[in-house]
TrEMBL record:
GO terms for cellular component: exodeoxyribonuclease VII complex. InterPro entries: Exonuc_VII_S, Exonuc_VII_ssu_sf. This is Exodeoxyribonuclease VII small subunit. GO terms for biological process: DNA catabolic process. Keywords: Cytoplasm, Exonuclease, Hydrolase, Nuclease.
Length: 82
């Protein structure tokens, strides 16, 4: 019976990643890894939803960072509509 209980236990939750501390490149690499995990047929539906949520947070963070870089480029380029 202990063996059955052990099989049904969920894996230990990973420590949440602070997306704000990752570089844009690291965010995109993480997104690629998340997509690969979601494509794995052995991943449960619940885990797929968690991966989707993490991926969307990473997309939002990457978008914010890209917007910041774009603003800096516009300022350096002398554009006034920043």
């Amino acid at each position: 019976m202990a063996e059955t209980e052990q099989k049904t236990k969920k894996p230990a939750a990973k420590k949440p990643v602070d997306l704000t501390k990752l570089s844009i490149e690291e965010l995109f690499e993480g997104l690629n890894q998340t997509i690969q995990k979601m494509d794995d047929s052995s991943v449960s539906l619940e885990e797929t939803f968690q991966l989707y949520e993490l991926g969307m947070k990473a997309v939002k963070e990457a978008g914010s960072r890209i917007d910041e870089v774009e603003k800096k480029i516009r300022i350096l380029g002398g554009e006034e509509d920043v």
